[in-house]
């Protein structure tokens, strides 16, 4: 079986959930996930943040702020919009988003452009919290995630959403019911999200019992109190119940100096992470591209990093 940094676009298109999970296991802690915000103009004109993250070594791309009711990705869907023209030109955004909402090949086409596994954040916000409907974890949005062809979902919470352990567990259970074995479910908290961090191993195991295939935790050095020892204990607990473990940089440190990213990457690898995630809070909805590459080099060296960066989509 190929490792994740050896996959071509043809390999990615043929993969189902279980094969993806086995590929990540085969890669021995050398899988890189980058998160991007889809609602802001890209860092580099003429290329989406998704493509930029892929070009700098990411294997998996997670979309943040994706709206299932009005799907629109800057850098992909705005190429024919002239933002310098009259205000009526902006109406095209609404028209394109409405068209995308009814196009169930939408993400499949995006995947062909980016050439990576593509997932989406979907948030189990508590009842009564005012939040964008298209970003909430509910039956309608989960069905659309399945129909669009995402490779995985990430059940977590952006800052100040009030997402809690209880809402995550309920969200996992609903996702498992609707998605079944069609899509990998990743769940957990990268930070407090307005309702506190997770330090108990039992909670992480409860996520797996509810149906999570992979559990995410903050990477060592990102959240107060999360050091190598605690991260390793938590990852061991996740592995004990048969799930993958992902460490995350979700505290804006994706905009730190490269030495910080390298330190976090090596600490996470020592802790046993299967996937290492780097967040979207660089300059404009994506980590500093150099930091994505620095994370990749830190955990798998230049040979495999350059291979991932250079592989032709059509090979």
TrEMBL record:
Residues 6-315 form the DUF7916 domain. This is DUF7916 domain-containing protein. The lineage of its organism: Bacteria, Bacillati, Bacillota, Clostridia, Thermoanaerobacterales.
